[in-house]
Amino acid sequence: MPYISDRLRRPDGCPWDREQTHDSLRKHLLEETYEVYDALAGGATPALAEELGDLLLQVVLHAQLGAEAGVFDLADVQASIARKIVRRHPHVFGDAVAETAADVNRQWERIKAVERASSDAAARGDADAADATVAKGALDGISRSLPALAASQEMQERASALGYDWPSIEGVLDKVAEELGELARAETDTDRREEFGDLLLVVVNVGRKLGIETEGALRAANDKFRNRFRRIERMVAERGVAIRDLDFATLDALWDAAKAEERATAEQRAPAEPATTEERAT
Q1: CA 82 to mean position of chain CA atoms
Q2: What is the structure's pLDDT at 127?
Q3: Is 242 helix (H, G, I), strand (E, B) or coil?
Q4: How many CB atoms sit inside 10 A of residue 120's CB?
Q5: CA proximity to 197, closest of 241, 166, 151
Q6: Using the 8-state DSSP alphabet, how is residue 2 labeled?
Q7: Angle subtended at Cα 144 by Cα 142 and Cα 145, rounded to the nearest 5 degrees
Q8: Per residue in 40-52, pLDDT tens?
Q9: How far apart are CA 221 and CA 149, in angstroms?
Q10: How many whole angstroms separate alpha carbon 206 and alpha carbon 172?
Q11: With contact defined as beta carbons under 8 Å apart, do 88 and 77 qualify?
Q12: Under a CB-based contact definition with an 8 Å cutoff, are residues 5 and 63 in contact?
């Protein structure tokens, strides 16, 4: 891959690739990341392999640009992540003990905190890493480019790893009810917007407590809504009327019909249960 990226960037290489910069490639990196995310829904498939390759190409191109600038190359990228993984797995590559995934997560966050403090101290020329921890907190490394749901879940995961978390799901559900009440009582657009954001954040925390990846859950719900609404549009078209001419009650009844049709289709596609001994004997 380094040979290919170098060849593409040469004067007699590809005009498009020669024009690219770290900044111009940002949108392509984001697009390829989401295409991998979508392909993951199908599991280990040739399509996923292809999308992973497209994403890998973006990494290689950025490494090529880094090499041309004399800052880093692909070997440096590989060495950097290798050092990080070894450093953050002392229970595998060292003498630390972590018997559960929760132990690993807590250890991971502790190590990251030390890394952040050291990095900030080095940037400031400050020998006291402890003081640097104040300047760079546990949430500072979360990209602002992340989708809001994913960023919210990551923030709350990190806060939980540091001990800021409800002991049970009941506490979070109580908070949902509290935020719903505050939203209902909000009197201005500004207040409603703020309270709605607070409600969303707590709902994300419900998903986190249940072990649900909230970004994926909402995407699945979006897909379900899209497919069900298409069924409604088909039903309306079969009636020979315009969907805009129907009132909400009629459309809601069609929604229920589409939902029932969806379930029936799913049941037909489900594998049949093995016949019982009595059924096989008849």
Answers
A1: 23
A2: 47
A3: coil
A4: 19
A5: 151
A6: H
A7: 115
A8: 988 999 999 999 9
A9: 14
A10: 6
A11: no
A12: yes
Interval 270-281: pLDDT, tens: 765 555 544 444
Outline where the chain has alpha helix (H). 2-9, 15-19, 26-39, 46-68, 74-87, 90-93, 101-124, 129-135, 148-161, 169-185, 189-209, 214-239, 248-269, 277-281
On whether both 204 and 230 belong to a single domain, the answer is no
Question: Within this chain, do residues 74 and 63 fall inside the same structural domain, yes or no?
Answer: yes
Q: And the tokens for 173?
A: 């559900």
Examine the domain organization and report whether 231 and 204 are in the same domain: no
pLDDT of amino acid 269:
76
pLDDT tier at 86, thresholds 50, 70, 90: very high
Closest residue by Cα to residue 102 from 110, 137, 175: 110
Domain containing 162: what range? 148-212
In a domain, residue 196? The reply is: yes
Residue 282 maps to a domain: no
pLDDT in tens, 116-135: 777 766 666 654 544 444 44
Is 280 domain-assigned? no
Percent of the chain with pLDDT over 70: 89
Neighbours of 206 (CB within 10 A): 15
The two structure tokens encoding residue 152: 């919210």
CA distance 129 to 270: 58
